[in-house]
Design brief:
Elements (H helix, E strand, L loop, with lengths): L1 H20 L5 H10 L5 H14 L15 E5 L15 E5 H9 L1
Antiparallel strand pairs: 1-2
Length: 105
């Protein structure tokens, strides 16, 4: 019950922030907000947990199962940011090697 309340509250706050700042935030400050606030939020931790429950802690590219090396949840697109729990197919579980390869080619 507590997790549901925290999740609902964080969803409300992020929705409000998105509506207020959507047109006024420049990409640089939006990127700062994304890295320093959103990815550390309980909302994102809950979404990551949902994706790990769906796929497991296994890289979707190479199939590497990991417990010691870092594994990331990657946004394929940023169209559904804040609403990922309804669009889990927009997320991908990747090992650190493939995640860096996705971003840097």
């Amino acid at each position: 019950m507590t997790i549901l309340i925290i999740f609902s509250l964080s969803l409300f706050i992020f929705t409000l922030l998105q509506q207020v700042f959507y047109f006024t935030i420049q990409w640089k400050s939006y990127k700062w907000f994304y890295w320093n606030v959103y990815l550390k939020s309980y909302h994102w931790k809950f979404v990551r947990w949902l994706k790990f429950r769906q796929v497991g802690r296994r890289c979707e590219k190479c199939g590497h199962i990991t417990s010691k090396t870092p594994i990331d949840v990657h946004h394929r697109t940023y169209k559904h940011i804040w609403w990922e729990m309804f669009y889990l197919n927009d997320l991908q579980v990747l090992c650190r090697y493939h995640h860096l390869k996705e971003h840097h080619g």
